[in-house]
Amino acid sequence: MTNLPLDLARIRALFPAFAEPSLAGQAFFENGGGSYTAQTTLDRLDHYYRATKVQPYGVYPASEAAGQAMDNAYARLAQALNVSTDWIHIGPSSSANTYVLGNAFGAWLKPGDAIVVTNQDHEANTGNWRRLAARGIEVREWRVDPETACLSLATLNALLDEKVKLVTAPHCSNIVGDINPVAEIAARAHAVGAVVVIDGVSYAPHGLPDLTELGADIYFFSAYKTFGPHQGVMAIRPELASALPNQGHYFNDAKLRYRLTPAGPDHAQIAATAGVVDYLEQVAALAPPSIGGADPFRRAHTAMRAQEIALATPLLDYLRTRNDIRLIGPSDPARRAPTISVLHAEPGIALARRLASHGIMASGGNFYSVRLLEALGIDPYNHGVLRLSFVHYTSPEEIQQLIKALDAEL
After folding, report:
1. CA triplet 231, 371, 383: central angle to 5 degrees?
2. Which residues form the Aminotransferase class V domain (predicted)?
3. Which class for 230: exposed (0-12), middle (13-18), buried (19 or more C-beta within 10 A)?
4. Are the CB atoms for 342 and 329 separated by under 8 Å?
5. Is residue 155 within a helix (H) or strand (E), and if so which, with residue range?
6. Fewest CB within a 10 Å sphere: which of 71, 116, 150, 332?
7. Alpha helices of 232-337 — where are they, by DSSP H?
């Protein structure tokens, strides 16, 4: 791993966690549950609480500044995702956001309409849609291959017809890691007139995508997994957001930002989300000239993915040598996010507990993907998988620390 595109010392200097004495020697492999927070995020959060912790959008200076800081976050997120600002909605969490979306679509769809869901998803992007069956909506399941854990476009094609009004899928699974071809999914769904909802929670930490290029109508992710505060970000095509029934106060019906997030998070956290975008610009500035991209965010995305592929290669190479584990998802690091789950004779959480004695911070269980584990023949409640998830700030030394710990404990 001598050809990492990003200088790790400079990247890690942008995260206070790496200077925290209590974390010294601890290798963080639970990024799938939430990343470390960038200094840029903390700076914006601290400033808001110190200088503008008042009711925003008022007529006095501190209130005006508070509203401007929040508006800036919406504009910055839109810039990073390559959409207009009216696409951006911020709510308390991705699970809460999709629950509200489910209610909105339940009133928008008609009995007899069909929707497509997957069994590869986190429950937040499948359970809320499956509940629509109680309203007379036909629910069709796009199922993973039980051997590979991956989704096939051919299987999707067999589910699509003129009755389908909604197709929802993960950009990548929080267990499988396989990166699904969102642009192709969107093209197939749009060809039959369906809306496309993509769960980006497990993909976004590895680079915010260009939503114009992906073609999804709704894309959501969690800011706390992308180096920011604990809240959920949704990008929704404005025409669709206007057409869906208002889920907020009736007198806010004309305010697009309020219609699908009736319970927004702390104002300071909204403002602090701009720190995620600030951080991505810092990553782009640290990327070598060989890393291309139309803007800083595409450069950051490319550099982060290249870094992660290089870091994942020795770990996946090692796991392939073990005949006592099952790797869930593809073994090719270029095909997947570095969210790597393995099945062993021992329950995942028990393995994670033993790895902790080697300074490895990981976890085990079903990670809210119960339907997926059941499809793979894995007991989601009493066994689960060991999940090893990392991002671009992980070091080669930490990868080797993990490999040595696995060698000792498997």
Report:
1. 95
2. 28-402
3. middle
4. no
5. helix 153-159
6. 332
7. 238-243, 256-259, 267-272, 274-286, 296-320
Q: Measured between alpha carbons, how far is 344 from 328 in angstroms, rounded to an integer? A: 11
Question: Residue 404: is its pLDDT beyond 60?
Answer: yes
pLDDT, tens digit, 9 for 90 and up, residues 164-209:
999 999 999 999 999 999 999 999 999 999 999 999 999 999 999 9
CATH superfamily ID and name for 8-37+295-409: Aspartate Aminotransferase, domain 1 (3.90.1150.10)
Is residue 14 within 8 Å of residue 345, measured between CB atoms? no
Q: Are 245 and 107 in contact (CB under 8 A)?
A: yes
Q: Which residues contact 383 (CB under 8 A, 6 or more apart)?
A: 343, 347, 348
Residues comprising the chain, all counted? 410
CATH topology of domain 45-277: Aspartate Aminotransferase; domain 2 (3.40.640)
Nearest to 184 by CA among 199, 167, 201: 167
Which pair of tokens denotes residue 135?
């309203």
Domain ranges of the chain: 8-37+295-409, 45-277
Q: Tell me whether domains 8-37+295-409 and 45-277 share a fold.
A: no
